Amino acid sequence: MSETRERILDAYERILIAQGERAATLEAVAEAADLSKGGLLYHFGSKAALVEGLMGRLHTLAAQDVERMGHDVRGAIDYFLRSSIITAQAKEQTFLAAQTLVLAGDGAAAEAVLSAEREWLRALEERTGDPVLAKIVLLVGDGLYFGSSLVLAAEAAGAGTDEDGVPARTSILPDDTRLAEILETLLSARKA
């Protein structure tokens, strides 16, 4: 994909995440990408083409994530759970933007997000050999993702601490030690 197309998709993601689907007009995306509307339309002929481009990016990033999951030395479950906590990686920004479109009722975005979930589940099933464990891990990962998205939103709104001043990132999300304990508990509970 060309550098300009990537810049347009980056701008589209930023607007979707920060301001929502209604604010992500072609004009706003073109301005955020430092292009004319005509320049944007040259690369993406319509708003539907822009959504399609973003969903293509999501598909590519999810496939790359599945590939990395299979090669992580700590194992697929550990990788999946750690990567479910939102940081500032491209995959996460694209997924957040896609979810914004899903919440706005975009069917293509909903199918793309569900397709990514199916791919992660299939990869977990293949690597664990246990469909029930794979589903549990997927759901725990979804919970970690949801929790971290709430923390990010709270931090962005200036409300990222509890009544004692402890950052939500610390009080809500597991650190590496706690995540290892969660993983150990999951695996031992499944063996019991």
Automatic annotation (TrEMBL):
Keyword Secreted among UniProt keywords: no
Gene Ontology terms for molecular function: DNA-binding transcription factor activity; transcription cis-regulatory region binding
Signal peptide extent: none
Annotated DNA-binding residue span(s): 25-44
Keyword terms of this UniProt record: DNA-binding, Transcription, Transcription regulation
HTH tetR-type domain residues: 2-62
InterPro entries registered for this protein in UniProt: Homeodomain-like_sf, HTH-type_TetR-like_transc_reg, HTH_TetR, TetR_CgmR_C
Protein name: TetR family transcriptional regulator
